[in-house]
Write a structure and sequence with these properties.
A hairpin with a 5-residue loop joins strand 17 and strand 18. The protein has 482 residues and is α+β, with helices and mostly antiparallel strands. The longest helix has 27 residues. The strands form seven sheets. A seven-stranded mixed β-sheet has the order 17-18-16-15-19-20-21, with helices on both faces. Strands 3-2-1-6 form a four-stranded mixed β-sheet, with helices on both faces. Helix 10 packs across helix 17, helix 13 packs across helix 15 and helix 15 packs across helix 16. Helix content is 39%, strand content 21%.
Length: 482
Amino acid sequence: MSTGVRTYAAVDLGASSGRVMVGRVGPDSVELREAHRFPNRPVRVPEGLRWDVLALYGGVLDGLRAAGPVDSVGVDGWAVDYGLLDADGALLGNPVHYRDARTEGVAEKVWASVPAAELYAATGVQYAPFNTLYQLTAARSTAQFARAARVLLIPDLLTYWLTGELGTELTNASTTQLVDPRTRTWSREVAERLGIDLGLFAPLRRPGDPAGTLRPEVLAETRLAGPVPVTAVGSHDTASAVAAVPATGERFAYVCTGTWSLVGLELSAPVLTEESRAANFTNELGLDGTVRYLRNIMGLWLLQECVRAWGGPDLGPLLGEAAGVPALRSVVDAGDEAFLAPGRMPERIAEACRASGQPVPATRAEVTRCVLDSLALAHRRAVLDARWLADRPVDVVHLVGGGTRNTLLCQLTADACGLPVVAGPAEAAALGNVLVQARAHGLGGDLPALRRLLSRTRPLTRYTPRGDAGRWREAEARLAVR
């Protein structure tokens, strides 16, 4: 073990599960272990779909207890959703889930005040029906919102409960559609035109900033000896995952896989052109002044929902059977909002294939192959579009996150993109979280140096493209003529 090794707890909250990971980081070493994993099960109540955020917080406390002594804690999680606090700092109800139907038709009301093109030019954020801006607009007429004194994005809410200190971490704030990516601060003009009070948000903080220390009650419950600092990380899990892309140069694209696929480039400045807006690319903020220029794709949610509908069969044999199904027999648009809501996913995929005149997948293996081919196709389109829109060459695609364990998806992405794919690390968000903490607490090096450390210390798998790229172009054309 290298000298100067310190220990950090990464709280990493995903849309289907949360985990507390323990990282031990030194100048030449990175070790990561899972201390505790817990489910994240949204709950449908009469008023809609909600996050069970108290259960999540309980899981975090259990995880910190299992982690043992640490030098710092950092929290990352999914974007756009938030909790409302009253004037006493108490939570006003469970946070609304981004898949809730309350934002249907809200974007058009927003665009009546700030046209979509102007909104994109000011904030650089892609259209998605669940963007925080639309959620706030939908909530504004509610009794709950009328009582709100603070809006805290989910990772900031958990950090507040751990420390008692309020803040809004920048990489996650940039997903709200209320931040100017050029100035890296709030877009006051957009907020004023839409009647949104930016005073509801706590002051901005950046990755590496101190975020308080664990409260005495938290120390007692987790059996940790204080003081234990909490450090702001890239609190949007994608920001942490992109920070952990083990690239050794600049000419790379990334695919952050999980419930969503986030596909794009790392840039030094946003791309705010009308062509970029039409292609629905977003400009989110990353570490060290970078911009995450990417497109959201529905991701492994499609397969997760199919598996849930089928009663939870073992994924390994299912993927093995899917590998034997003819390639590109049927594909769907993996970015289509039709797949956003939960439920009936196999039927909805079949309906989409039928509507586009393609063979309808009849078996579980055929549906699975359709999903994976469609994801790879969407990865291809996003990489090609990003490369063109940003005028940036790409030599390699780095695929990180849970999808690295799906070897068929990795190979199909290489085949579709016509580029080598380097897969790994699987726990990219947790590693990015840990490395930002380590740097804030004395580990030297800039972002490229952190990535070189990962490339030396993490197992990576390289996939070489196979087959004829023309088959992927033909499949893409099938979707274009729908």
